[in-house]
User: Which sequence fits this backbone?
């Protein structure tokens, strides 16, 4: 081996060591169930939700999970969930009727806090900032369904059409792949659309994304914002061609306004980062571990980046739909088909 190759292997070794991690460890599984909803309100509490009216909960940091089936909703697919603690949680079901359920006793009882019987209703994702939450759904009659709650999800109302500065394009919709295409932040609301058109929306205004689109199976699936609020990463692809890495990621950096009186639209505060490169294959979920550390998952596997998405290290070919970072920890929980819930420690 030449000295140049030795140096190259040396550099690669320490590059990988800089993002040291333990292998992905399967914690539990529930055959025949697909999990796409995941919420981790604290280091010790984890909630997951999915098909067949299924909800799973751990109160010991993921060492053990209890499984429950929501009575009366055994056929529903709860693809989105938000938990406030080990007792309070909100779950959202796709398809008609669109329903949102709330529990205040750890999942023993669930109350219906919203229902929409329109045959076209399809609710996709949920996000909360403190007590303020939103649920997004596919457009009906070219109008986005965006619900809002100011009381921890105990009641919901539809956001008025005057909120939207951009109009929906024909064939533009949202994916309920991981419940992570919507972010309610302290001052802004972000979401990403896919399908025939894929766009980045900020406070009701949209710009086109240079991500694969043009089919019902293509486009953005998930959006994440860095802890310092300066970077956004958007992932997706074509879930019918899940090994393709063609145009499956977008990086955005926040522009620093030079004038405090700057009146530019909030969507114009973000610029594309051309240095971001593609992870391996279709990805349904992205999350920030730190301002530079990113993790993505999908049916194509799990990839890590420690430079803001410039380079990626594929760590597993296992399929997962959704992942979340444990608060205050370099630990990730993943969930997917077969009711599989797994953990990845990076310390």
Assistant:
């Amino acid at each position: 081996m030449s000295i140049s190759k030795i140096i190259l292997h040396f550099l690669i070794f320490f590059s990988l060591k800089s993002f040291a991690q333990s292998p992905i460890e399967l914690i539990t599984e529930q055959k025949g169930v697909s999990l796409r909803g995941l919420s981790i309100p604290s280091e010790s509490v984890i909630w997951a939700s999915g098909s067949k009216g299924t909800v799973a909960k751990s109160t010991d940091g993921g060492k053990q999970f209890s499984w429950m089936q929501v009575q009366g909703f055994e056929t529903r697919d709860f693809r989105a969930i938000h938990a406030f603690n080990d007792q309070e949680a909100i779950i959202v079901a796709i398809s008609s009727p669109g329903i949102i359920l709330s529990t205040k006793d750890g999942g023993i009882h669930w109350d219906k806090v919203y229902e929409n019987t329109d045959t076209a209703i399809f609710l996709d994702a949920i996000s909360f900032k403190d007590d303020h939450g939103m649920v997004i759904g596919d457009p009906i009659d070219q109008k986005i369904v965006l619900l809002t709650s100011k009381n921890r999800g105990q009641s919901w109302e539809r956001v008025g059409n005057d909120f939207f500065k951009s109009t929906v394009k024909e064939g533009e919709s949202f994916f309920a792949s991981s419940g992570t295409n919507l972010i309610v932040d302290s001052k802004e609301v972000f979401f990403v659309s896919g399908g025939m058109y894929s766009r980045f929306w900020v406070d009701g205004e949209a710009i086109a994304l240079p991500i694969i689109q043009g089919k019902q199976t293509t486009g953005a699936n998930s959006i994440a914002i860095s802890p310092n609020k300066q970077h956004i990463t958007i992932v997706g692809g074509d879930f019918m061609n899940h090994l393709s890495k063609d145009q499956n990621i977008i990086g955005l950096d926040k522009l620093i306004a030079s004038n405090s009186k700057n009146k530019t639209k909030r969507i114009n505060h973000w610029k594309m980062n051309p240095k971001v490169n593609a992870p391996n294959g279709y990805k349904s979920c992205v999350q920030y571990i730190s301002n530079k550390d990113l993790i993505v998952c999908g049916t194509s596997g799990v990839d890590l980046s420690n430079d803001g998405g410039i380079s990626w290290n594929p760590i597993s070919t296992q399929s997962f739909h959704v992942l979340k970072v444990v608060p205050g920890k370099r630990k990730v929980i993943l969930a997917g088909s077969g009711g599989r819930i797994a953990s990845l420690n990076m310390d």
